[in-house]
Structures are given as structure tokens and as C-alpha cells.
Automatic annotation (TrEMBL):
Reactions it catalyzes: ATP + protein L-histidine = ADP + protein N-phospho-L-histidine
Domain MHYT, residue spans: 1-138
Domain Response regulatory: 581-692
Sequence ranges assigned to domain PAC in this UniProt record: 270-322
Modified residues (4-aspartylphosphate): D631
Annotated protein name in UniProt: histidine kinase
Keyword field contains Oxidoreductase: no
PROSITE patterns: HIS_KIN, MHYT, PAC, PAS, RESPONSE_REGULATORY
Membrane-spanning segments: 20-41, 48-69, 84-104, 116-136, 156-178
Superkingdom per UniProt: Bacteria
Length: 706
């Protein structure tokens, strides 16, 4: 613009040209200053200070271009400048450049950018003419214009600059077109990338899996909505915080010291178990896995990981392990109880026989025998508890009126728990009867009352109540749907923590002091409930007492009498006036000899057999047999199988089954008398009396086969 405008400048009688070097320098200064200014404004970080610096640089570049171009003029005069107009020209250049840069750097429209270009052009022209107004030409006499350095004419220079300018403008226009096209393509790609990232972010956040991404320090960058729902936090409370902040101390230490370094080193972390803590303070068992993501150049991007809530699965696994443990303990205790019953049968039987042979005036010997018998009976009671826990005790379920049973044992309850504890009972009217063994239920209630008493050393209250819940299907896996009687025994004692509550029904587990408990009380109650078709449910909290709920099936009809010989009938022991021929079958020699000795003491003729097959062989050679007494569990054939086979040949044969325990269906015992081990001489006498009156004596003879 400068050199074209100088075509309009003329001085009468004076010709002038331009120094080529200074002319090119003025062009270079203008181009460099303008390019530097736009470069500064194209940086990502912009500020008013940056704008002022870029405007100052461009304005001074335009001013320098003008005055260097003036210095390039070759003429017979010297040039000086008016200070005021020179300052005005500088201010116009700087102000116009700053304003144009500000408009161009904004997200402006094409019209606004055109206005900025016009403003810049007018301002440059204004600066030029203000600079020319400041110029003062003083003619130097005697100056030879023909001499001096090489120069170029004013018209030629103007035409050259104009041509170069239009060429530059054309090239700039073409570059702008391509730049615009590339900018549009880049914008489209950026929009597509943003849309893809948004879709990924939406997919990531809305996935049904609890996912998270971490930075290299283990801090959370993003989480899915499912992750937030699982942990109970909002997004602002999670993102930016370390993952270990949401784990227990032990799990956080494991992740920080072991798993995170392994993950960074190997770039993959196989599933690991952790304990997470939700916002509400609830603990979750989770399994976490992770993988390191890198870009194409191998630079670290983030860690992608996820959580799997396995709390319910672990609870089920723990319950299964507990059930298997209880089942294994039940089998073990059941087997021990069976063998122990055999030993007790020998001890009780021999002590009973010894007592009959002691002189009545030998008080010391009689007292020793009585003490031994009492100890044996305590052992038998312990064995019954073991059998109840193992669910192998022979129960006599019947229709039991719960309120009447509790009222009948009120005095016993009060004496058991003492005067410091108040007993409150609450039963609804017309409560149905429960199907359960009444004697075992009394023992279970006493066990629960004793536990409550021990939990209230300073006294308190014991509440016993019952109701009739109806359980629909799917509510409880341990109970069939239907009507139940729920007997509730609750106290306001010390209570139990979760660890103690989880082991409360384990056999031999007790929190009482040495000698103050066997650890079989709740085990027996649990076994009774399970064997009766119900369940025991315990609730407890430290300082708030314990509640035991015993679910029992409702009795729909009277229980069938299974004809079990009880131990409550006082029978006089006398030598029988009529001698019976009795065969005793037992695989244990001690029990066999003891039972034979007791029968002989009663005056009967005894035949023995060590197995069912041995008994069948001896029955063939014996013309007459009055009673068959057999153990149940024996090698080869059981006692019931022996009785059934004998019954096929002689339906009227009198039989008596003796056993410490038996996993027998009640229907299998129909018509068979059962005497539990250990038994005394008195109980054996009662059983024989019932057997003798059950059917006529028929000689044994093998039925002819057809």
C-alpha cells in the first residue's frame, strides 16, 4: 500500500527513486511482524496481555515498514518528521492492528472478519498519510540524482510491489480455500470423534456392569452408573479419588502394595477378592479384575477394571459349608452315640445285675452301685442329646397343645431359672396343636430357658409366646410352604455378636465357663426342630438380648402310635413264673452277653446268635421259640430285615427290636416293639410283658414252599 500510495506523491521539479535494499527490508519487516502477530494469536492460550503484545508487534511492524520505505527514497532533499504527526501515525497503526487481531481471533462471522479487514486497510492508509503529513522535505542544493547507489524508479517499484501483492493475495486466497476445506474436514472429524467419545461414555456409564477406569496412580477417572448404584455414591463423590478409599483397610493394603504394582508391570490383573465399603457402611465381597490400556505409541492411557458383587454367593457358600459341617458332625456324633449306647447298655445291665446280688445291709456297696448307675444314666442323657443333634433319635411325635404344655411346666421353669427372672407367656386363643415329641419339646424349652438365665446374671424377663404363621412358597428354603406353629422364646440378656451367633448351634460350642455347659443345648433344639419338620431361627444383638424361634408343623391329625417302650412305667422285677425261650441276636459280644445274663436273671432260657444269618440257621433247628430279641444295626441284614423274614415264615412270631438309634421311617416300625439302649432290668421286664401279651405262642416251623 505504501509504495502504491507514493505514486500519488509528487514534488514539482523533483524526481526520486528507491533504494532496493531498504525497499526489500521494509517488505520483510512488515511480513515478519504480521506473521509473528497472527502466530501469537493462534496459540491455545489467549489473554488480553497476549492480544496487546501481538497488536503492538503488528502495529510497530507496519510503522517500521512505512518509515524504512521512506528512508529508501532517493531524492535531492532531506526528510525530517513532525513529532506530533509521527506519534499519531504510530498510535493509528498499533490501535488498528490490535482491533483487527481481536475481531479476527473471535469466533466471528465472515461479515465481522470483512469489517476487520476494512478497518485494518483504512487504518494502514490513515497511518501512511499521517506519516506523510509528518514528513518535512528539505531540498539540498547541488545534489546529483544520477549518482549514488542503484535505484529503481517509482513507477516500476509500485508496479512490482502491486504485482507481488496480488500474487501473494492470490496465493493466500488459494491457501485460505484449502485451509478452510481442511478446517471443515478437521471439524467434521472432531465432531465425529466427539460423538464417538460421547457414545462410548454413554455406553460406558450406562452399562449394566460396575466398571471403572483408573489413572496410573490408582485414582478413579470414570465409573459406570451401575458402579455408583452398587456403592451408593454420586459421581462427584467418586471421580478423582483413589480406589482404595472405597475398600477395607486390609483390601486397600493388598491393592496398593501387591496388586497395583503387578497390574502396571504385567498390564493385566486376574480376578482378585476384595472387601468394599458402601456409603452406608455396608461391607461387600467383590471380585475385581483390571487391564492397562495404551495408545498406538505405547503410552499409558488408563486402567480399565470392574467389580463383581459376590456377597450373596459367598453367603450361600458359607451356608453350604456350614450345612456340610453340621451334617458331617451329625454323622460323627450319631456313630459315636451308637457305640456309646452299646457300652452303656453293658454297663447299666451289669450294674443292675450286680445291685440285685448285693446284700441289702451293705449300704456302702449299694451306694457305690447307685452312683455308678446315676453316672451311666447321665451318659445316656448326653447320648440322647447327641442323637437329637444328629437327627437320629427316635421321636414320638404327637399333637401337642403348646399353651397347655408351657402351663404344665411353669413350676419347673421357674425353679430352673430362679426367682430373679420373670416369666411372661402370651398365646392366642384357638392356637392349633403342633406335631412334635412332647418330652423332647419340654427339654428344648428348658435348654432355651437355661441359656436365657445364664445371659441374665442380674435378672430380667423371659417371654414365651406362640403364633401361627403361614409360609408361602419361596420364602424359606429350609421350610416347606404351609402352616406352622412358631414358638418364640426371647430374653433381654447380654445377647451375642455375629461370630458367636453363627456358631451357636455347633455341637460342643459354648461361651460358658469350664464345667458350666456342654455346648449341646442349642444343638439339640436345632436337631429336634429339623427332625420334626421345622427349623430353629436365632436373632441376637449384643446388649439387646436373644430371640429363639422354633418352627413346628401344625398337627393335622393324631400322630400314629409307634409302639415304643417308654421308661416311665414302674414294673416290679420278679423271676417269671413261666420260663420263655428267647433268642437274642446282636453282633456286639458284650451287649449279647449282657442281654443274655439279664434274661437268665429273669428265669428265661436264652439262645444267642451273632448275626441275622446265624439266627435263621439256629431257628431251623429249634422246635419251639417264644420271643426273638434282635439288635437293629448289624452286618449283613438289619434287625428289621430279620424280623420281616421271620414273619414271612411265622406271622405270629413275637419280636422285640432293641437299638440305640435308627434312621427308620415310622411306617417300617408298625407292629414292631422298640426298646431303646441302654435299658435296665426293669425296662426289659416291661418290654417282655408287652411282647408276651401281644400274640399267642406259635412253634416255629418252616413253611412249605409251593
Amino acid at each position: 500500500m505504501h509504495f502504491v500510495a507514493m505514486l500519488a506523491f509528487s514534488m514539482p521539479g523533483m524526481e526520486f527513486g528507491y533504494d532496493l535494499g531498504l525497499t526489500l527490508l521494509s517488505l520483510a519487516v512488515a511480513i515478519l511482524a504480521t506473521g509473528a502477530s497472527f502466530t501469537m494469536m493462534n496459540r491455545a492460550y489467549r489473554s488480553w496481555l497476549m492480544l496487546a503484545a501481538a497488536g503492538l508487534l503488528m502495529g510497530l511492524g507496519v510503522v517500521a515498514m512505512h518509515y524504512i520505505g521512506m528512508s529508501a527514497m532517493q531524492m535531492s532533499s532531506s526528510i525530517s518528521y513532525d513529532g506530533l504527526w509521527l506519534s499519531i501515525s504510530v498510535l493509528i497503526a498499533i490501535g488498528a492492528a490490535t482491533t483487527a487481531l481481536w475481531i479476527a481471533s473471535r469466533e466471528s462471522s465472515q461479515l465481522q472478519r470483512l469489517a476487520a479487514a476494512c478497518l485494518m486497510g483504512v487504518a494502514v492508509a490513515g497511518m501512511h498519510y499521517a506519516g506523510m503529513r509528518a514528513a518535512i522535505f528539505t531540498v539540498a542544493p547541488g545534489t546529483d540524482m544520477a549518482e549514488g547507489s542503484a535505484s529503481i524508479g517509482q513507477t516500476a517499484l509500485a508496479m512490482s510491489v502491486s504485482a507481488a501483492t496480488f500474487l501473494i493475495l492470490f496465493l493466500a486466497l488459494m491457501a485460505a480455500m484449502f485451509d478452510r476445506r481442511f478446517a471443515v474436514m478437521a471439524e467434521r472429524e472432531a465432531d465425529a470423534l466427539r460423538a464417538s467419545e460421547e457414545r462410548f461414555r454413554s455406553l460406558y456409564q450406562d452399562t449394566p456392569l460396575p466398571l471403572h477406569s483408573l489413572n496410573e496412580d490408582g485414582c478413579i477417572e470414570q465409573v459406570s452408573n451401575t458402579w455408583l448404584s452398587l456403592m451408593g455414591y454420586s459421581r462427584d463423590e467418586v471421580e478423582g479419588r483413589p480406589l482404595i478409599n472405597f475398600l477395607t483397610e486390609a483390601s486397600a493394603r493388598q491393592f496398593r502394595q501387591q496388586d497395583l504394582p503387578e497390574l502396571i508391570a504385567k498390564e493385566v490383573l486376574p480376578p482378585r477378592d476384595y472387601r468394599a465399603v458402601t456409603k452406608s457402611g455396608k461391607f461387600l465381597d467383590v471380585v475385581a479384575a483390571a487391564k492397562v490400556e495404551r495408545d498406538a505409541e505405547g503410552n499409558f492411557l488408563h486402567v480399565l477394571g470392574g467389580l463383581t458383587d459376590v456377597t450373596d454367593r459367598k453367603r450361600v457358600e458359607d451356608a453350604l459349608r456350614q450345612s456340610q459341617k453340621i451334617e458331617a458332625l451329625g454323622q460323627l456324633t450319631g456313630g459315636i452315640a451308637h457305640d456309646f449306647n452299646n457300652l452303656l447298655a453293658v454297663i447299666v445291665g451289669n450294674l443292675d445285675l450286680l445291685r440285685r446280688r448285693l446284700p441289702a445291709d451293705d449300704l456302702k456297696a449299694n451306694r457305690l452301685v447307685e452312683s455308678a448307675l446315676e453316672g451311666a444314666q447321665r451318659g445316656a442323657s448326653l447320648t440322647q442329646r447327641l442323637l437329637t443333634f444328629a437327627r437320629r433319635q427316635d421321636l414320638r411325635p404327637s399333637a401337642v397343645e403348646i399353651p397347655g404344655l408351657i402351663r404344665g411346666m411353669a413350676d419347673l421353669l421357674q425353679r430352673t431359672i430362679g426367682p430373679q427372672i420373670r416369666v411372661d407367656t402370651q398365646f392366642p386363643l384357638h392356637l392349633p396343636q403342633a406335631r412334635v415329641d412332647a418330652n423332647q419339646l419340654e427339654m428344648a424349652i428348658l435348654n432355651l430357658a437355661v441359656n436365657a438365665r445364664d445371659a441374665m446374671p442380674a435378672g430380667g424377663s423371659l417371654k414365651i409366646s406362640a403364633d401361627e404363621p403361614v409360609l408361602p412358597s419361596g420364602v424359606n428354603d429350609d421350610l416347606r410352604p404351609g402352616r406352622y406353629i412358631r414358638l418364640t422364646v426371647s430374653d433381654d440378656g447380654e445377647g451375642m455378636n455375629d461370630e458367636t451367633l453363627a456358631r451357636a448351634t455347633d455341637p460342643f460350642f459354648t461361651t460358658k465357663g469350664v464345667g458350666k455347659g456342654t455346648g449341646l443345648g442349642l444343638s439339640m433344639v436345632h436337631g429336634l426342630a429339623a427332625q420334626s419338620g421345622g427349623r430353629l431361627h436365632l436373632r441376637s444383638c449384643p446388649g439387646k438380648g436373644t430371640t429363639a424361634e422354633l418352627y413346628l408343623p401344625v398337627a393335622t391329625k393324631e400322630a400314629e402310635d409307634r409302639t415304643v417302650v417308654t421308661k416311665s412305667e414302674p414294673i416290679a422285677i420278679e423271676v417269671s413264673s413261666r420260663s420263655l425261650t428267647v433268642m437274642v441276636v446282636d453282633d456286639d459280644p458284650l451287649v449279647l452277653d449282657n442281654t443274655s445274663a439279664m434274661l437268665q436273671e429273669l428265669g428265661h432260657v436264652v439262645l444267642t446268635a451273632s448275626s441275622a444269618n446265624d439266627a435263621l440257621i439256629k431257628l431251623n433247628s429249634k422246635p419251639k421259640l417264644d420271643v426273638l430279641i434282635t439288635d437293629h444295626l448289624m452286618p449283613g441284614k438289619t434287625g428289621l430285615e430279620l424280623i420281616k423274614e421271620v414273619g414271612e415264615h411265622l406271622p405270629g412270631m413275637r419280636t422285640l427290636l432293641i437299638s440305640g438309634f435308627a434312621d427308620l421311617d415310622p411306617s417300617e416300625l408298625q407292629g414292631v416293639l422298640l426298646l431303646r439302649k441302654p435299658f435296665s432290668l426293669r425296662e426289659l421286664t416291661s418290654a417282655l410283658q408287652r411282647v408276651s401279651s401281644s400274640a399267642p405262642i406259635i412253634p416255629f416251623a418252616r413253611r412249605a414252599r409251593t
